[in-house]
């Protein structure tokens, strides 16, 4: 038994079990026709290579048709007539056909592999681009590891279908049709007996196909679970080690990999049951040819060479069925992967631009909330009839208990979420009437949860302005009080910081995030607990940097530590999504209300202003 029962709150737990897209409705299964249609849509620009591959396939089918004719001619004509001179030509013909088959198959396989890789390249980029267009609430609902699995593993599964299986299907269809027509011409009675077997094969394939597809879906979902667990535990490795939870997480990982193992075993069992049935039906066809063909030969209605050729054609006729019995697994696996991909591609963003949205011109930063209602879910209303004004060029602070709605207000300004009712304007423009890019380009955010990417210091600072010169980056770092510690590193601005900035201290990471915001040069700044977890010395450096950053800009400051907002032009105290007090620091202390009590708790030795 695990010694960490509260696993739902550990790395990889919590909401990790959710699989939700859009509003959470169950997606309809994607059709195989739709999958092929989308693949051809991506492949349409590769038509010269597709035509070449198709020509090669037709040539392969014709060559395979010729070889049994050479066999029949040898048995029926060369051997009875003792025509030794013809044997060399027959041998050369068979070897020449083998060489041509090898060359043509190489060309068609290479071309289809190239086309497959290009289609995957486009599909993966389309999927990633679509995910980037979705709003923050989508990523709140869905697991990072699961989304990673869809972009990497599920898209890769389609490669085998595109590069080899689709060509195999086309080859088999052409070969089957051509040979069936020829066999009907040679002897329609024997051919019809053989063809009577194929409806049974098709029905068997259909019955097993549904189960195989469902099993592959479980395989891919279990892989997503493994990926999600890895992503959570590897990023939270310090937490795991601090709580000595290594064994607990190993048990959970083992549980997920066991689910993947069981799902794969189920797929193997279905294949193991399906393929012998197809083989039995193939042997039934062989028995028909041998028995009925021999009977016709004994009656003088068919030559021995024709029987041998018929047997060879039977093999060519059955090969497509054998191939399809294998390809069906690839198709069903690809269909399951395609369903998971389309769940994302069919998800519509909750935050979208109007068709007539305008580009927001440079703003002063006057922001107004009017009768705003917002809820993350029906059961969790955060703001109700909320009103707030942020004056242009002034510092407005929000304080209050956790869950009072402070961070929600900060997220509504750049339209990470939209309110269910009411309106938010900036310089008189409704946020819903302007393009998202023009709005967010004028907003800078510095939060307690710092996001830094695995790269160098200069790359992370320049992330807000990719066209900035090195001199501008250095100037931003200097304004953020970061140039001192950066230049102390042996590699300076080219110093790698590790994943999530693991090689930097909390204060250093925060100053880099401020330098990034300064380099963006936004008109509106949002500081969400920007100094909450810093020591006194780091906070002093950052307060100096923030003073430079905020000069002449509209600023919204969210803080629990009241020492950081005493100089704000306006302070609002929030409780349960409503403003209960407003004023300057001194005015709120004189009120002897909620702000005064918060201040007394943080500074018990300081006498309140009366």
UniProtKB/TrEMBL annotation:
Protein name as it appears in the record: ABC transporter
Domain of life: Bacteria
Main localization (coarse): membrane
Localization in the cell: Cell membrane
Residues of the ABC transporter domain: 367-601
GO cellular component: plasma membrane
Membrane topology recorded in Swiss-Prot or TrEMBL: Multi-pass membrane protein
Keywords per UniProt: ATP-binding, Cell membrane, Membrane, Nucleotide-binding, Transmembrane, Transmembrane helix, Transport
UniProt GO molecular function: ABC-type oligopeptide transporter activity; ATP binding; ATP hydrolysis activity
SUPFAM superfamilies (alphabetical): ABC transporter transmembrane region (SSF90123), P-loop containing nucleoside triphosphate hydrolases (SSF52540)
